[in-house]
Specification:
This protein is an alpha+beta fold. It is 40% helix and 10% strand. A 5-stranded antiparallel beta sheet has the order 3-4-5-7-6, sandwiched between helices.
Length: 596
């Protein structure tokens, strides 16, 4: 049931199946706090900036990645370096970018239709800016020059000579480039060649409200009614690019206008490698990769395209741990504010004893959740059983799951309180770190390092909550084999990068406590997204999850894959036993008594 070996981070077998073969690998154990770096300095001074100087023939990031990965194998402490404010990017000198940003506006459909076509100045640069692919071309080279000068990304004695091309990326189909906005590749030519400047750039901008019914829906959800999703991503790039313990694409320009909800983000283009030929949902061509060559892009919920899912997910968990640990060191206080520090007892004292609540409240919560679960189960049993596993469409298994979920729903807020009740378990996290929101490359030893992008929702949260989004695309066999190993990896790397020591078994418990609410949430999207994009009458013609009607429709693929994986994984763990043991033990004082 997912038990890992005493040494190492993965299970090598699941019932009836060999998942991995054990290989000799260098130790990656965390050293004692007083460990020394290879040059004899205190390990606490090790940092990304301490990487060996790059040679003339390779980019600086290669040398930094090489040093970072060797430190991982050697188990060196790796704490954030001190940054002198005078070394902050030019765009951060003066008024804090967050202070420049007016509050989010929720536009009504009529207002969105009128305002979203306008080009008003942005709040960060004071400049008008393009907000679609045509304007990325029509604004001309002089605009890019002024914009990049404004952000300090282009030297004042250089200029953009011409726009070579603008290519909008597909927003539907097998190779859809994400769902949160439109994207484009921009190729530029500079007057003076400069190895620090990228000629191949990437642009992200909002859905066009007037393009289609889908465009209307997404624009309202993402830029208006769904909350403030766009500005925080831009502000994260502006304020934190130089602070992260990993690569992110170099920022060239970004801005937003609250009155129109239009925005533009321009970064370097990640040079993803070539993907082999895909047949029946599998990559059938093996392509040899050189060290530091970026692996092919993987679409959201297309884990079957990953050459080695295990390496990818362990790399992701390692970087999530690094991100969280540096927050414990105060690394992002400039952006997020000082990090609160509190113990479980202090948090509980601040909350006070749980007051009795009305039984009817628990009944209402359960009733609402069960309506969602009903729709998920009906979808699995009657609408699309052919895309679910045998266990995921078994009526008895699903009935038992529903019965268990009904008991757990009233505990949902109590579980949230438990997971947030110590600052050691809460830190800055990427809100949606799936494989499609990172780029990966091997080093000379074949170990993967990664860079991250798509910073919508970057904030402090109990990190187990973010684990759910990260792993929602992972199939049940992978989770069955590796969930314990992933928790161990996170705890080891969290401590190595300066976070407190955490018990991996407690982290695993907190992760598993998220599952009841997660399964309900997966069911939520059947009516709202899956059947909206693929009506019931079409499902009889869909044979597998690799059918174009499934994989080419964004929400059908994303929401559908998460639901399929959740229904298959639930019966592999005794969640009733897990939650009941928690409620009778460490969770007892967090439970709301529904007695009135």
């Amino acid at each position: 049931t997912g038990s890992g070996p005493e040494e190492g981070w993965i299970s090598i077998k699941v019932t009836g199946k060999v998942l991995a073969e054990l290989l000799e690998q260098p130790s990656a154990r965390v050293p004692h706090q007083n460990a020394k770096t290879p040059n004899g300095d205190s390990a606490a001074t090790a940092s990304v900036s301490a990487a060996a100087a790059p040679s003339a023939s390779e980019p600086r990031w290669v040398a930094e990645s090489r040093r970072k990965m060797q430190a991982f194998r050697d188990g060196e402490k790796w704490l954030p370096p001190t940054i002198d404010p005078k070394d902050f990017p030019e765009r951060l000198r003066g008024t804090h970018p967050v202070q420049k940003m007016p509050p989010h506006k929720k536009l009504l459909p009529k207002e969105m239709a009128e305002m979203s076509v306008k080009n008003l100045p942005g709040h960060l640069s004071g400049m008008k800016f393009p907000h679609n692919a045509d304007q990325l071309k029509s604004f001309g080279a002089d605009w890019y020059t002024e914009a990049f000068h404004n952000f300090g990304t282009l030297p004042k004695d250089n200029r953009v000579k011409r726009i070579v091309s603008v290519e909008q990326l597909p927003h539907s189909g097998f190779d859809a480039a994400g769902g949160a906005g439109h994207k484009a590749f921009v190729t530029l030519e500079y007057e003076k060649q400069d190895s620090n400047l990228h000629t191949e750039l990437f642009a992200k901008f909002p859905w066009d409200y007037h393009e289609s019914d889908t465009g209307k829906t997404y624009r309202m959800q993402i830029s208006s009614s769904g909350g403030d999703l766009d500005a925080p991503e831009l502000l994260t790039y502006v304020c934190c690019e130089h602070l992260f313990p990993f690569r992110i694409p170099k920022l060239y320009f970004c801005d937003i206008n609250r009155d129109t909800t239009n925005y533009m983000l321009i970064t370097e283009r990640v040079p993803f490698g070539r993907r082999g030929r895909v047949e029946h949902g599998k990559v059938v061509d093996k392509i040899e990769r050189k060290p530091y060559e970026v692996l092919p892009v993987c679409g959201k919920y297309q884990d079957y395209l990953l050459e080695d899912p295990g390496k990818i997910y362990f790399c992701i968990f390692r970087e999530m741990a690094h991100l969280a640990a540096w927050d414990q060191q105060g690394r992002y206080d400039y952006f997020l504010g000082p990090k609160p520090k509190y113990t479980v007892d202090e948090a509980f004292a601040a909350m006070g004893e749980k007051k009795p609540a009305k039984k009817q409240l628990a009944a209402n919560m359960t009733k609402g959740a069960m309506l969602l679960v009903d729709s998920g189960i009906d979808f699995a049993l009657n609408t699309a059983p052919q895309v679910f596993t045998a266990r995921g469409r078994d009526p008895k298994v699903l009935a038992k799951m529903q019965e268990e979920l009904a008991r757990f729903i009233p505990m949902n807020d109590d579980i949230k309180g438990y997971c947030a009740a110590s600052s050691e378990w809460v830190a800055a996290m990427h809100s949606n770190l799936q494989a499609d929101n990172a780029f990966f490359w091997p080093d000379e030893q074949g170990d993967l390092d990664a860079g991250l992008f798509d910073w919508c929702g970057f904030n402090r949260t109990p990190f187990v909550v973010n684990f759910m989004g990260c792993l929602s695309g992972a199939d049940a066999d992978f989770l069955d084999a590796h969930e314990e190993g992933l928790m161990k990896m996170f705890c080891d790397e969290y401590e190595r990068y300066g976070g407190p020591h955490l018990d991996w078994q407690e982290l695993l418990l907190r992760y598993r406590l998220q599952w009841p609410n997660y399964v309900v949430d997966c069911c939520r999207w059947v009516e709202r997204d899956i059947l909206r994009e693929c009506p019931k009458e079409e499902w009889s013609s869909i044979k597998t999850v690799h059918d174009s009607k499934f994989v080419d429709r964004w929400n059908v693929r994303c929401r559908g894959t998460a639901l399929i994986n959740a229904f298959e994984f639930w019966p592999r763990r005794d969640f009733a036993k897990i939650v009941d043991a928690w409620a009778a033990g460490p969770g007892k004082r967090f439970l709301t008594p529904y007695t009135l």
